[in-house]
Structures are given as structure tokens and as C-alpha cells.
Amino acid sequence: MAARTSLALLAAIFAVATAAPFGSTTASADTGTNAAKYYGMWNYDQPDAATLNNIDVLACPDGGGQCDPQLPLPLKVPQVGWVVFAPGPNGTVNGHTDGGCTWNFRVQRTGLELSSTTQQCTNRAVGSPGNITKWSVQVKGNRETESIVTVSHQPNGVDLIGTMNSGSRTKVVDGRHNGKFVQRFVGDYRYDPADLHTLTNVVSTDKGTVYPEQGTVRFSGTHHGRGKINAHTPDGCDWTLVVRGNTAELDPDTQTCHTANGDRSLYYWALVTDDGQHMNGFLAGSTTAPGQPPTNTFLYVGALTRSATDPGEKPRRPGSSTTPTMSAGPGH
User: Fold this and answer.
1) For domain 179-306, is the CATH number 2.40.160?
2) Where is this region: Disordered (predicted)?
3) Residue ranges per domain, the chain?
4) How many CA atoms lie within 13 Å of 157's alpha carbon, on the beta-carbon side?
5) Could you tell me which residue, 247 or 156, shows the higher pLDDT?
6) Which candidate among 5, 158, 280, 298 keeps its CA 20 to 30 Å from the CA of 201?
7) What does the alpha-carbon distance between residue 265 and residue 210 come to, in Å, rounded to a whole number?
């Protein structure tokens, strides 16, 4: 792939994908509600491109794609990662995301709603600012549903709107059953074919270039504590991730691999699998060749499939009461 693209524009995609602007207010909560049911860590369920569940659709304000020819709009961006809801000031609820930002919500009888529409954050992984104008959250037991609308103000003056009408998460409870989640990750997963039209497995750089992500990642258990896994990537590097429910993320947050061709660092990598056969994820890092400045790299729409020679976890029966069997759509 010799195509070139705009990192500033793609960075906005990442900001939308992590849904992580910042803000706090002193808005009062509805005294007739119970905020405690929202508290805790909640992971996105595996995205489903067929139903658009946990898929953010990035488009022009009119819903089309003519406002910015540099991006394949409308663009479907799978949502991956977690949010931790905790008590906020004056009876509100704060939502802290794995993107490193905190949103403030007011508690209403119908659920959580943003306490203001002007909260913003610069995503820690990309350095791109974002604004969410709507984030509605409902909780029933250990299941959460949500809808989000975001606005990305582009350097070229274009506003891109990100809309996720159907979102769902599952609460991360204690670690007694963490082994079954780890097992879904362990094994060989191969990157699906790269696609410039959807940005699936297309890595972009701050040098304005893109290239395909490809090859097999081998995930294995570690001796560094319960829930830790090792990811051996095609470049020969090893990375440590921690599994919490259906989601694995870097632990520690920043890791560096030294190779004969230079250094590679990762400072964000999140992966999700509900069925133990397919993964969605996105990644941010950098590469540094000897004597050269770092090149920042971003994989916004990552998709992997378990190798055909590695059966891994057996697919669950339809209607299973554990984690729903979901298809992440074409190429996943």
C-alpha cells in the first residue's frame, strides 16, 4: 500500500473510538435515583458490524462522506475498551476511560446523561482533542447500554460527527472466573486482510504514510500474575497485557521492544474477544530507527481471527447465558 493519508484526520478517529473527552461539573443529581448501580468497570462487548452494536459511524454532518475526500466516509469504527464509573461531586457520577479522560454525568431516573455538552479531552494516546455532545447510559444488573454522539473539529475546518446508536457493555466483576476469559485469548490469531476502504488493519503514521498490519500474533499465559498474557507479534517483540473480562490491555501502559532495526514502543493496545475466535482492537505506538526521530504509528481498526490450525475455545451454543456469540462482521 503506497497510499498516503492525513494523521491529523485519522487521529480524530481514534479520539472518537476511545470516547474519552474530559470534564467535571457541579451539576446536582436527581435525588430519587440510585447512582451506586453504575459504579465499577464496564467493558465494551465485542463490536458487531452487521447490527452496528458498538460501532461508531464517523461521517459528515449530513451523514455522507463528501465533506472530506481524504477519509473513506462514512467510516465504521469498532469500539474497544473500558470505562470506570465512580462517585463524582455533588451526587454526580464520573466516567473515567482507558483513554485517560474523565466525563461527568448527572443521574436521572432514566439513566446517566452528560452534565454538560462542552466537556473536552485530549486523548493521551494520540494527542487529539475531542468533544462528546451526548452520552446516555442505562444499567440493568451487570449489563449496560449506551448511545454516544461526538464532534471532531478537523484542521481543515470540517466537522465530523461520530454516532453510536447501539452500545453495550458488561460489568467486570471479581476475578474468580478470569481463567475462562484468559483462555479465549490464548493461541494464534492472524490479522485479517487489510482494507483501505474500511481502514481494517491499516496502520497510519505521522509521516503521512499507511501500510498493512499482517501476520500472526501468538498469545500465551505468563507467570507474572493471574490474568496476565504475553503477545508475541510478527516483528519478534513480546508484550504483556492484562485480561479483565473480555478485554485485554497493555500492562504496564507503555512498553518498548529493542530490535536490530531499532526500537518499537506501544503506549496503547486494547483487544476484545467474546467468542474466542475473533478479536477487535486498536493500537498506538512508535518506531525509532537508529539515528532517526520516532515515527508514531496507529492502528484504528484492528481485526484478527484465530488460526485455522488452532481451534482454541469451542464456540458456545446459541443462547448461552455466559457471553453472547457475536459476529464482528465481514473480515472479522
Assistant:
1) yes
2) 307-332
3) 36-171, 179-306
4) 0
5) 247
6) 158
7) 18
